[in-house]
Amino acid sequence: MRETISEQYAQQLKQLHSATESFGVGNVTAKHYPMIEKLIEKRSFGSVLDYGCGKGHFVHHLRGKMPAVRVEGFDVASDEFSAMPADRFDLTVCLDVLEHVEFGALANVFADIRDHTNKVFICSIANYPAGKKLPDGRNAHVTQMPFGYWFSLLSNFFRVDQFLRTGKAEGLYVCSTLNTTMDWR
Question: How far apart (Å, rounded) are the C-alpha atoms in residues 157 and 53?
Fold first, then answer.
């Protein structure tokens, strides 16, 4: 099993989730839901994984809007969504999550996402300091990098099909799976 988070950092995120009602609820990412729903309909996806789902806002939203689609969530800081499903999904989304991943764990997280994705991976990245702090005082966005660097990292695991700037320092990447089992880490 790949290490996707250190135990210390996992505890920091769990504390932040439990202490802050507004953390991990989709406040910033809900604007992406209509585009993702259209993609699910257009491509007839039957399964969706929300990787880093926080408190499950998108999971619950999509289950209500598209009951025929199997929707699962995973988040290391959530009791409800702490178990990673073992199977693969047509679409994996990662909304406002990757900037919360420790830099040293990014390759393992991308590999984990790749291994659970059959067709498409969509991620939104907020490339600015978060409004929230971790209990140890660090900014909640522990990894902030230029969008080109995110593109390079993603390209090691997926084909980046599209980048959409969704705010001054926010972007959405739409990626396809690669037809390879190579791991260039």
Answer: 21
- Say if 182 falls within a structural domain: no
Concatenating the DSSP letter of every residue in 88-102 gives -EEEEEEES-GGGS-
* Residue with token string 């969008």: 147
Site of tokens 């660090």: 138
* Residue 149 forms part of a structural domain: yes
**8 Å CB contact between 125 and 105:** no
| Residues spanned by the domain of 63 | 7-120+130-177
- 80, part of any domain: yes
How many structural domains is the chain composed of? Answer: 1
Task: Give the pLDDT band of residue 17 (cuts 50, 70, 90).
Answer: confident
Answer yes or no: is 167 within a domain. yes
Q: Residue 133: its pLDDT value, please? A: 92
47-85, pLDDT tens digit by residue?
Answer: 999 999 998 999 999 999 999 999 999 999 888 999 999
Helix (H) or strand (E) run with residue 173 in it: strand 170-177
Helix ranges, 116-174 (H): 147-155
Report the predicted TM-score, pTM, of the whole model to 2 decimal places.
0.92
